[in-house]
Design goal:
Blueprint (H helix, E strand, L loop, with lengths): L1 E10 L2 E10 L5 E5 L9 E10 L1 E6 L20 H12 L4 H18 L1 E8 L15 H13 L2 E8 L21 H12 L6 E2 L1 E3 L7 H9 L6 E5 L3 H11 L3 H8 L6 E5 L5 H10 L2 E4 L1 H6 L7 H6 L3 E4 L9 H16 L12 H17 L14 E5 L13 H9 L4 E6 L2 E5 L2 E2 L2 H16 L4
Parallel strand pairs: 1-4, 5-6, 6-7, 7-8, 7-9, 9-10, 10-11, 11-12, 12-13
Antiparallel strand pairs: 1-2, 2-3, 4-14, 14-15, 15-16, 16-17
Helix pairs in contact: 2-3, 2-14, 12-13
Length: 454
């Protein structure tokens, strides 16, 4: 048993003083006591504020290596779809070794930003020509290895990608690395299950355009009862295609044709009519929001106020990993609502701290989406914890009601000093404990890729 002692910690009931947190041998919180005293052998978190760490609910880790390489203006109109073609060209040269090095670096950066767990939406399954590796789970095992190297908690979401569009067209040459029918997917998922003992294993449908309706029910029901994720209603063109093919908008169609419940995470859900927004909230599923990527790709703005008013749950993800910044995801989420609605303090329903409301909602929604008992400092939860530098916050605000406002809207990720994932301290003094080794491997990989893989 190890123990942390903090002058202040954010517990489910709010900020509490002199908090002692005991962590058991497997990395779960064994006990939490308030108005306590440090004991001999405790780790004393002097000048720190202890908060639950967040789960990053949506990532394509390999895209971290192309960050900044798709910002050039070309002739014609640039959009998500032109970005996708650039991404396809990039991933065609990735080897399993490349993917492992890139993912480890992305996960290291996530930990340094204050994320303690990741939901990896993993669709890069096969060789560039679409053929299987000798081990069909080769790529997934590389993702798991990257998580182990970085120390981040892992929820692995192998993706079913079966067709090139809602019209049932075949996958094109650039999509063959993703492709699975149900039999091939079952083989893949079974192979992953044998090597993912320390991870939560769920499933993902890439999108309604990539997964035909007949596959959705068996995907959600036949693979162990874990989390179910899907890209939904990210782009206007996607909405139009689904409506033309299925007679309903994507969210409305999904809610009418699948048993969407708290296991589900609908990633983006950007383009919804008010009735879709309210209906999604009532399912208690999680809306997976990725504000930095959604802004980078020009996706649009989520209907946050209406979703909250209906009792909706949400979490945040770094998606394309063009920039890994936990507090910026929360800021962009709130500011996008202000741009859209033209008033302030949108993402809180009752009076109080907007920063704290954003943070706690994302902590709880992210943990739910990952099937991970986390997001709260309480007995039985994983010891997924972040310690903030008090000097970045306390001198600037009068009371604890505003501490997370200052963290989210002002200090940002520079306030993150220490991060634990399942009780493992992976970030100390703001830097990952294995940063030099992980960064070196990443830089070598990027140099290799920029030379065209030669």
């Amino acid at each position: 048993m190890t123990a942390l002692f903090a002058d202040w910690a954010l517990l489910p009931q709010g900020w509490c003083a002199n908090v002692r947190v005991e962590i058991d041998a497997v990395g779960r919180i064994a006990s939490v006591s308030t108005d306590s005293h440090a004991q001999t052998g405790d780790t004393r978190l002097a000048n720190r504020l202890l908060i639950p760490a967040l789960s990053n609910l949506h990532s394509h880790a390999f895209q971290r290596a192309m960050a900044g390489h798709a910002e050039k203006k070309a002739s014609g109109e640039d959009s998500f779809w032109t970005w996708r073609e650039a991404m396809y060209g990039f991933l065609g040269q990735l080897t399993p070794e490349d993917v492992e090095a890139i993912a480890a670096f992305a996960y290291m950066e996530m930990l340094e930003a204050g994320f303690s767990a990741i939901g990896e939406f993993h669709y890069l399954h096969h060789r560039p020509d679409g053929g299987s590796y000798d081990d069909p789970a080769e790529m997934a095992q590389r993702i798991i290895a990257a998580a182990q190297t970085s120390g981040i908690g892992m929820t692995l979401l192998p993706v079913l990608y079966a067709q090139g569009g809602v019209d049932g067209r075949a996958l094109n040459d650039r999509q063959r690395r993703f492709g699975c029918d149900m039999d091939r997917y079952a083989t893949l998922h079974g192979a992953i299950k044998h090597s993912a003992a320390d991870s939560v294993l769920g499933v993902a449908a890439h999108s309604l355009r990539a997964v035909p309706p007949a596959m959705l029910t068996p995907l959600a029901s036949d693979f162990g009862g874990g989390p179910v994720h899907i890209h939904i209603a990210e782009q206007v063109a996607e909405v139009a295609d689904v409506q033309a093919a299925y007679g309903a908008r994507p969210v409305a169609w999904l809610l009418d044709n699948a048993d969407v419940d708290p296991r589900w995470c609908l990633v983006h859900a950007t383009h919804m009519q008010p009735e879709e927004t309210i209906a999604l909230a009532k399912t208690r599923a999680v809306a997976g929001l990725c504000p930095i990527t959604e802004g980078n790709l020009g996706d649009g703005i989520f209907d946050g106020w209406r979703f909250l008013e209906a009792g909706g749950r949400y979490g945040i993800g770094s998606d394309s990993n063009v920039r890994i910044d936990l507090t910026e995801e929360l800021r962009v989420l709130e500011y996008s609502q202000r741009f859209q609605d033209r008033h302030r303090t949108v993402m809180r329903r009752d009076p109080g701290s907007v920063g704290q409301a954003l943070y706690q909602a994302a902590a709880q929604g992210g943990a739910q989406a990952l099937g991970r008992q986390a997001g709260r400092i309480e007995p039985g939860a994983w010891a997924d914890l972040t310690a903030l530098e008090a000097d970045e916050i306390l001198p600037f605000v009068p009371g604890h009601q505003e501490w997370l406002d200052h963290y989210v809207f002002v200090a940002g990720d520079r306030a993150v000093r220490t991060v634990w994932s399942a009780g493992r301290m992976m970030v100390q003094d703001g830097r990952h404990i294995h940063r030099a080794k992980i960064a070196h491997a990443f830089k070598q990989t990027v140099a290799h890729l920029m030379e065209g893989g030669s």
